[in-house]
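Annex B. Sample input.
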Amino acid sequence: MNNEKMTGVMTPILTPFNDDLSFAPDLYTSHAQWLLDQGIHFLSPFGTTGEALSMTKAERITAVDVLINDGIDPAVLMPGTGLCNLEDTVDLCRHAIDRECRAVMVLPPFFYKNASDDGLYAYFSRLVEVVNSPELRICMYHIPPLAGIGFTPDLAGRLASDFPDIFVAYKDSSGDFENTKAVIGAAPDIAVFPGSELYLKEGLVHGGMGCISATCNVNPAEIRRVYDVGIGAQRGDLDALNDKMVRFRKTVEKYGPIPAMKGLLAAQRGDSRWRNVRPPILPSSLASTESLLQELGSELHPL
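Annex B, continued. Sample output.
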């Protein structure tokens, strides 16, 4: 796998389901290609936004195969592989390596909420040992609001120092930018991504590498443009572009991002299957989607 530091805008891609709630590969591949055409640098299947923990291990393997077999370059893929049991996590990591994906994004084993840094270090050391591949590249997925535990700056720094060619990135979905800055300081050689475009502009100033954000699914070109202007690759009014992007994000957040974004895709693409979510998440109502469409107005570009 590529050792170059990952940079840019990454989409934790939504997972579409048929009306019987089975995986819908045709919608998945077409959405992935559209996102790349809009300028997204990387795709991360099976993040929180992709309803990963409502999917089986076999479904995850199938979905990665679908993307690659349908022409998506595995070098732009970073599948989520983190489960509570080591064996399934190992299997998903090995599959991603076999398919030559760029990296894997791994949650901590999240059931044991009192796990210490030493306990998590032992788990991840064991993961590295059992996968036993020089091609393993891990993005640490820090989302304590849902997982209950996460990668402290000290733990991230320790793993990155002891396994420098393996622990190469960190997604910070804590919502606390002070934590993001602390991780950048503790592990300066890895790519640190805020888990929302709300911190994209500020992150670039402090050494972040871009963002990994749910709303890249429905606002990809505008998020990419803020990134490009922020790194100086394009000219533009960064503050105005950032304000518009943040306003879009906060509007979607009010409606519940996963069902809201799926509702937008269903409305704009004319395929009601996009509205489907797996319980316990509930789908967005038609009325809710219409309200969101009206709030976004001209800021919503064609999907």
